[in-house]
Specification:
heterodimer, A: 5 helices, extended, B: alpha/beta, 2 domains, 8 helices, about 30% helix
Chain lengths: ~140, ~325
């Protein structure tokens, strides 16, 4: 599944539309029985362990797994594999529910954010720049 | 659509403690409500959580809906979303704000799908237009711009906001209405069962509380050179921050990421090294007291947000800077 601009809405919403339970922020997975999984979910400063019956929709974090090494033969083999591209001509979903038209949120405008900062460029040799930097840091009162 | 009214804030409590982001969101909700002469309602779920309601009122809520039930003692997505869904259908709030915490990020999209409305995630500001419609401000794609998003035809207008972005008001003794809700849940299995919750308080100085933050970006280039960032932070008694690429590369930890989907910092001094300055990062640090940026690219966007600019290879500057600071500190 896509990381969706890191706003992570797809997993939970897909599960709701499918009427299935879901878990986000998954960092570890284990089978307990054929239709039961033990799921570790990352939360602030720790984790939650959950027992879920299948089917369940999971959104995972990158800690879950390290992608295996791709051997050269695998890259060559991938070249000849067929990639099937489905469009809405195949899926026939009501167009008022998908894409820009179906999105409840719309973009209303764009603005360039202006910042009021001094942008003072330090010039000179590296040693001179370092001296000026240390003077600045000293003035800020943090050393 | 006119029957939709009021601004709601989800009050997240774990182990009987309110998350700070609730108080920040109440501050924003109060500001928006006063502009349009509407009311702020906090939605509080849990067990034995009623004493928290007065805190929410003191931070800006006019009323609190409390769903107090042993089945809501520990957060679980399905029971929580079912209870909140029925409250939304009954009371029809116009705006619903949630913290972008582990809980909020899971709950908000599920709720938005349930009541078929729009959700804008990780907003960096919230405003109202002249008609009282919510304007969500989010960093634009590719950085450099802020996009304004609206949810014109669906209610409630939902948003999540990362902790640290909004400012809480100073609490004041206020009077408000506390309404207890009867909880109705179907008598069947409601999603995964919680076996264990483990939390460890972080040992290090939290990034968002540090007086000095030294942050590195993609330009740092390698794990080896990342140590210079850590060493500079260490001599300054500060914390290490990062943009997304160093986290993806594994040089920095997830909790060190600053920006829209990471943390918001406001240190006295922020030093950015090898950071290009995409808006996604800038929104998390532009409130810093003083900003020093080191980058070889004279046109780096980060310079627009900087007080002091160094166009130089950090590999030459930082090691000497570390030595010089150590020398000064020894006096």
């Amino acid at each position: 599944m896509t990381i969706d601009g890191s706003t992570a809405q797809v997993g939970s919403q897909l599960a709701e539309f499918l009427d299935l339970p879901n878990v986000m922020h998954v960092i570890d997975l284990d089978w307990q029985a054929t239709h039961t999984m033990i799921i570790t979910q990352k939360i602030e400063h720790g984790y939650t362990k959950l027992r879920a019956s299948l089917p369940v929709v999971l959104s995972i974090r990158k800690e879950l797994n390290r992608p295996r090494y791709i051997p050269f033969a695998g890259i060559i083999a991938a070249e000849s594999k067929e990639i099937e591209v489905l469009t809405n001509d195949d899926l026939r979903i009501d167009h008022t529910l998908i894409g820009l038209e179906g999105s409840p949120t719309k973009m209303a405008g764009l603005e360039i954010r202006r910042f009021e900062r001094a942008r003072e460029r330090l010039e000179g040799s590296v040693d001179e720049i370092v001296q000026k930097l240390v003077d600045k840091i000293y003035q800020y009162g943090v050393i | 659509m006119n029957e939709y009214n009021g601004i709601w804030v989800f009050a997240e409590a774990r182990d009987g403690i309110l998350h700070e982001v609730n108080l920040e969101l109440l501050g924003k909700a109060r500001e928006l409500a006063d502009q349009t002469d509407t009311h702020v309602t906090a939605v509080l779920l849990g067990h034995h959580v009623k004493p928290l309601a007065q805190i929410l009122i003191n931070y800006g809520a006019d009323s609190v809906l409390v769903a107090d039930d042993p089945r809501l003692d520990t957060y679980r997505l399905l029971p929580y979303s079912l209870v909140i869904e029925s409250l939304i259908r009954e009371c029809q709030p116009r705006i619903f704000l949630m913290g972008a915490t582990a809980m909020g990020v899971e709950l908000a999209p599920r709720l938005a799908a349930k009541v078929r409305t729009g959700l804008s995630a990780h907003c960096v500001d919230l405003k109202l237009d002249s008609k009282g419609q919510l304007l969500y401000v989010v960093p634009g794609w590719g950085g450099g711009v802020l996009a304004t998003i609206t949810c014109p035809d669906h209610q409630p207008q939902m948003a999540t906001v990362m902790p640290g972005i909004m400012k809480a008001r100073a609490p004041a003794q206020r009077k408000g209405q506390i309404r207890e809700i009867e909880v109705h849940l179907p008598d069947k299995e409601l999603g995964p069962e919680v076996l264990e919750i483990k939390r460890e308080e972080p040992e290090e100085l939290p990034l968002e509380k540090a007086e000095v933050v030294v942050a590195g970006g993609w330009g740092v280039g390698s794990q080896e050179d990342w140590r210079m960032i850590e060493e500079l932070a260490s001599v300054l008694g500060g914390a290490v921050g990062a943009t997304r690429p160093p986290v993806d590369e594994g040089w920095a930890k997830e909790g060190q990421m600053i920006g829209q989907s990471g943390k918001t910092v406001r240190p006295t001094l922020y030093v950015g090294v090898g950071i290009s300055g995409l808006m996604h990062h800038v929104v998390g640090m532009d409130q810093s007291g003083h900003i020093i940026s080191i980058n070889t690219d004279p046109n780096a966007d980060i310079f627009d947000t900087s007080d002091v600019i160094v166009v130089e290879d950090f590999r030459k500057v930082v090691p000497r800077l570390i030595k010089e600071i150590q020398f000064r500190l020894r006096g």
